[in-house]
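Lecture notes, continued. The same structure-token format from the folding unit now serves as the input rather than the output. Read the line below as a description of shape only.
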């Protein structure tokens, strides 16, 4: 707060990204008094990164359709005067012809396969918006193929990459923008040309490649464990059946968690030089 106040005489010199971590999947996992504390902080942020549930908490709108999503982001812009919003982990109903739901998230259920099918229920997406001067939303959407694997820390990775890529996109834009408060583009800038949209493309390109390679390494590691277990299960043979079962389950959980640790360092070139394959599109629904 002090840093932002000191930078007020130099618009564009300070940019605050806030991830309002409060809960997910319809459940608050922080103390109840944290919610109003975050609501008090949001007006001071330049960009917030809520998931669907957190966007619902901030807006007071239950997101059950594309229209609700637009309304929720607009309310966040207008209520908190926060210039930039990216909403992750959104789950919307699929098309009428499909019995599956479209899951839009940065992490998905634990599985061992990669889905490359382009059906909506096999795609992940992120929605973003930079507000106009009247605080209305300029929404865009970018989709990537779903990786059916649970990864820990993707939210932190997304936020960290977004800081750098948004600054890069702003400094590649007009010199005037970098000296504009909160780096808000003029109203005539199209949704797909927003620095926030360009940054999101690069961030998701890096994340998709790194997570894809992480999942391949994870599957190989778990396969090695499976082969080794035929000889190593004897260490639990002396335990009663229930204790033995619990010990094996605990070992499996720990192995799965360790194997799914993001291989960031060994894939750093994909962070530095992402190949953008998934483009943003305007979202006017």
């Amino acid at each position: 707060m002090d840093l932002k106040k000191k930078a007020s005489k130099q618009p564009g010199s300070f940019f605050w990204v806030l991830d309002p971590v409060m809960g997910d999947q319809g459940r608050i996992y922080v103390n109840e008094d944290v919610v109003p504390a975050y609501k008090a902080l949001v007006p001071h942020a330049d960009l917030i990164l809520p998931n669907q549930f957190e966007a619902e908490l901030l807006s007071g709108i239950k997101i059950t359709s594309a229209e609700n999503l637009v309304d929720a982001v607009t309310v966040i812009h207008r209520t908190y005067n926060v210039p930039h919003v990216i909403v992750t982990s959104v789950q919307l109903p699929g098309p009428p012809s499909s019995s599956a739901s479209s899951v839009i998230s940065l992490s998905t259920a634990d599985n061992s396969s990669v889905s490359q099918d382009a059906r909506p229920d096999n795609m992940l997406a992120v929605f973003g918006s930079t507000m106009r001067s009247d605080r209305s939303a300029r929404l865009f959407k970018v989709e990537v193929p779903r990786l059916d694997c649970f990864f820990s820390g993707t939210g932190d990775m997304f936020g960290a990459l977004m800081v750098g890529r948004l600054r890069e996109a702003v400094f590649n834009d007009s010199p005037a923008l970098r000296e504009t408060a909160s780096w808000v583009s003029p109203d005539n800038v199209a949704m797909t040309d927003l620095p926030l949209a360009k940054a999101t493309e690069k961030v998701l390109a890096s994340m998709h490649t790194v997570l894809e390679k992480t999942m391949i390494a994870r599957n190989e590691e778990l396969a090695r464990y499976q082969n080794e277990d035929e000889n190593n299960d004897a260490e639990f043979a002396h335990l009663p059946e229930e204790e033995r079962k619990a010990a094996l389950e605990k070992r499996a959980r720990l192995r799965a968690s360790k194997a799914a640790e993001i291989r960031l360092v060994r894939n750093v070139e994909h962070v530095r030089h992402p190949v953008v394959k998934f483009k943003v599109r305007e979202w006017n629904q």
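Point for the exam: The longest strand covers residues 123-130.
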